Amino acid sequence: MNSSEEKPNVIVIGAGGVGVIAALSLFHAQKTEVSLVVRSDYHHVTKEGYTISSCDYGELSNWKPHHLYRDVDHAIEEAPKRFYEYVIITTKNIPDGPMASRVPTILKPILENQLTQHPERKTNILLIQNGIDIECDVLETYDKSKYNYNLLSGIQIIGSTKIGKGIINQQGHEHLSVGSFNASDIDAIKAAQKFVGLYLNEGLNSIEFDERVRYSRWKKLIYNAAINTTTALVGLDVPRTLEFAKNKKSTELELYKPAMQEIVNIAAAEGIVLDEQFIEFFSNISRNMIFKPSMCVDVQKHQLMELEVILGNPLKLAEKYNVQTPVLRMLYNLLILVQCKLKEEKGLIKFDETTARLVDN
Q1: Backbone angles phi, psi at 203, to 5 degrees
Q2: In the chain, at which residue ranges do the beta strands (DSSP E only) sit?
Q3: pLDDT tens by residue, the chain, 361 residues
């Protein structure tokens, strides 16, 4: 490639701990032209850049990708004819949140523009987000034959957090697996395999093509549905949830491992067999790391959680397959109350204290 114009354009939408490191990995590989949509920190980052402490890339200051935008509309206004070969969504997936923050809404301007400007070219949408069945909203909203896109699914294992305005702390090595949401979609498989080559920084990050991406999503849920959720409820890092437990055992034996076993059972009901050794592995993976998972961080920042994709969707499948899930359902029902507390703080719902009832919209 002789010029940046010959490189594929990639846009990363979502500038939290995962999104910034994704943009940094692409930028470092020097095989793509990288745009990053930065919402709350846009003015700060355009002036000061990012301060990044990364176990993969070291200490960086004043770092910026090739292009910064405050939202997708801004990206289109600035470069209406630019074709984005890959559109990467790393925002929180909150289908019970405000309409403007939902994935189909975020995607609409860019899909409409690419349909108008480049109807013959296929857009690759890559969702690097938590949860199971997160891709369904996109497929239900946008007809693939009309909008001409591939749908890719990405599972990111990383300990990366935005800890301040334009400040990212990555303390866990990045491992990204990417595959086609539809395991038999040849075009999407090729797009995922190409992305692996664009993203890899040999000896620094880790990325692989994943032909069993749904299996990988279930595997990650073993951790998220049990530990992410519990830490959100109690507001503690993982080691404290273990050390503060009755006899230093009750959290692990009565919450974490039973919840993890329920995820294994739901996956098995739809034909995905997860090795039960993963329960032991994920019970210990954060034991010695002072780490607050994403849902815990969200609650402490007074932000909505990814509750429905991490717990709601698996529980729907449990009902479908008649799998018993008492621990997961208890966590879910408690977290609904926390989520509604956050919604009330944000004015998304209203509680009338004179009637002691929720006000219907």
Answers
A1: 85, -5
A2: 9-13, 33-37, 50-54, 58-63, 67-69, 84-89, 123-128, 149-164, 167-180, 206-209, 350-352, 357-359
A3: 444 458 999 999 999 999 999 999 999 999 999 999 998 899 999 999 999 999 999 999 999 999 999 999 999 999 999 999 999 999 999 999 999 889 999 999 999 999 999 999 999 999 999 999 999 999 999 999 899 999 999 999 888 888 899 999 998 899 999 999 998 999 999 999 999 999 999 999 999 999 999 999 999 999 999 999 999 999 999 999 999 999 999 999 999 999 999 999 999 999 999 999 999 999 998 899 888 888 998 999 999 999 999 999 999 999 999 999 999 999 999 999 999 999 999 999 999 999 999 998 7
Whole-number Å distance between alpha carbons of 7 and 37: 19
- The CA angle 42-235-294, to the nearest 5 degrees, is 40
Contact, 47 vs 124, CB < 8 A? Answer: no
- Output the CA angle 5-6-9, nearest 5 degrees: 70
> Residue written as tokens 């002072």?
290
Q: Are strands 9-13 and 149-164 parallel, antiparallel or unpaired?
A: unpaired
DSSP-derived letter for residue 8 is P
Please, what is the Cα angle at 26 between 174 and 141, to 5 degrees?
90
d(CA 117, CA 80): 8
Helix 326-345, helix 313-321: angle, nearest 10: 150
| Residue 308 backbone phi and psi in degrees, to 5 | -70, -40
Token pair 């992410």: residue? 228
Tokens of 58: 């070291």
Whose tokens are 């993982």? That residue is 238
Phi and psi at residue 164, in whole multiples of 5°?
-175, 180
The pTM of this model reads 0.91
**Spatial CB neighbours of 203, under 8 Å, sequence gap ≥ 6:** none
